[in-house]
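// run 5 | inverse folding | seed 20
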């Protein structure tokens, strides 16, 4: 089974930027939808952005125009560029991969993003 490892979280001031990376242990190029989710403190996990094998993207309304999801199929990696960060973007960010023939997601361990002055 594919394993996912996130990196790139940290503390940033409001208005700043962070870039998250997700490395997969095996190829996810053709058969996996991928995405980023986040879990704010005291809240449920929520969609941030997804990207299909063909690179079709979908974003939560709250991050449109500020975040950009991308993937490198050759490296089996997924990225999330976050700009103009707000305190409400704070949370644990999880990478997700799901085979196109399955409805069972695979999750990474998560990386903390804190937006605070």
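// decoded
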């Amino acid at each position: 089974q594919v394993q996912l490892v996130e990196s790139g979280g940290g503390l940033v001031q409001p208005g700043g930027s962070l870039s998250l990376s997700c490395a997969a242990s095996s190829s996810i190029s053709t058969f996996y939808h991928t995405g980023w989710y986040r879990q704010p403190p005291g809240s449920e996990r929520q969609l941030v952005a997804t990207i299909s094998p063909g690179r079709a993207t979908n974003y939560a309304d709250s991050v449109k125009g500020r975040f950009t999801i991308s993937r490198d199929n050759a490296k089996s990696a997924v990225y999330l560029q976050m700009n103009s960060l707000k305190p409400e973007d704070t949370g644990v960010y999880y990478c997700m991969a799901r085979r196109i023939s399955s409805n069972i997601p695979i999750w990474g361990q998560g990386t903390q993003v804190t937006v605070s002055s």
